[in-house]
Structure formats: C-alpha cells, structure tokens
Specification:
Blueprint: H1 19-31, H2 39-46, H3 64-75, H4 78-88, H5 90-94, H6 96-100, E1 102-108, E2 111-116, H7 119-127, H8 129-139, E3 147-151
Parallel strand pairs: 2-3
Antiparallel strand pairs: 1-2
Length: 175
C-alpha cells in the first residue's frame, strides 16, 4: 500500500510508507485511538466515580444476620418466622414453671392457642393473660398475635360416640 506522503523527520523517501508506519496505521484502524472510541468505551468513560468500584460505597461486607434479615423482610417471611420462634421459646415468654404445665398448640388468625395440663393451670394463665400478651407483643412484634386463648385438657364429650342419643336424652321421664 503505497500512498504519497510528505517526507518525515526520519528522512524516508516521500510517497513511500515504511513498514512500521503501516503496522501502526493498521493497529489504529483495528483497535482505534483515543478520539474514536466505541460506544461501550464512551459509556465506561462517562460512568460516575464510585458507582461500581470495588471499594466504593455499598460494597462493604455485611454480616450474615443483617443479610438474612433483609432477605426475610423482602420475601415477607417475618411473620411466620416470628411465630415459629415464639412457639419454640414458650418457656422464655411464660416462665419455666408455667411452661412445664402448658404448651402452645398453634397460631391461627392471630390467636395463639395454649393447651394446659389442668383446668387450674388454664385458669391461672387466664389471670396472667395481659402479662403474657404484653411479653409476646414486646418480644415478637412481627408475629401478629392479637389474642391468647388458654384451653384445659381435652375432656370426654358425651355428645358423640356409640352411646349418645340425639336431643336432650332421657331426663326424669320414668314413671
């Protein structure tokens, strides 16, 4: 590729391009120079400082606990996790002695149901209902507990079974 060129300072003949010049010009066409960058190169050059730099803001390492808290809140798992934590730590909420005689059965529509060993324990816990509900609200606000229901032990029902009859049944009708 011979093009007429003016003589340069090196003293080459006019009109003859040296091999080094041709290599330079070819590389310049292929890879470009600073003035004719590609669109991607211009975007990278215009990027805001610190937006995605390795040590910029927002790139600091975080603890696993804070990452998991952010994930559970973003996915809406706070309420079920708080409810399961409440059920698992019932002895901390109600007290050690009380937890020996009562156990949470489940949570449905914001109502925590607690089964007690005897009707006396159920009555005692009904008296302590305000204190237990306050403790739950302070420790587990995400659980969404609105009420606490205490049940006594399951007693047999004479309304169902093989010897039950419909209606009021036999009263004082003999004789």
């Amino acid at each position: 590729m011979i093009t007429p060129q003016p003589p340069d300072a090196a003293g080459d003949e006019p009109g003859v391009e040296s091999e080094s010049q041709s290599v330079y010009l070819r590389f310049r066409r292929v890879f470009g120079d600073g003035s004719s960058r590609s669109a991607d190169a211009r975007k990278r050059a215009k990027r805001e400082p610190g937006s995605s730099s390795p040590f910029g803001s927002g790139r600091d390492p975080e603890g696993l606990g804070s990452v998991m808290d952010a994930l559970t809140s973003r996915l809406g798992w706070n309420s079920p996790l708080a409810q399961s934590e409440l059920l698992a730590s019932w002895s901390d909420v109600a007290g050690a002695e009380t937890a020996e005689h009562s156990a949470p059965v489940g949570i449905e529509d914001g109502v925590l149901t607690v089964r007690c060993d005897s009707t006396a324990w159920a009555t005692q816990l009904r008296i302590m209902r305000v204190q237990i509900a306050t403790s739950i609200a302070n420790r587990y606000p995400d659980a969404g507990i609105t009420r606490v229901r205490f049940e006594g032990p399951g007693v047999p029902s004479w309304k169902r079974g093989p010897r039950s009859i419909p209606g009021r049944g036999p009263r004082d009708t003999y004789g």
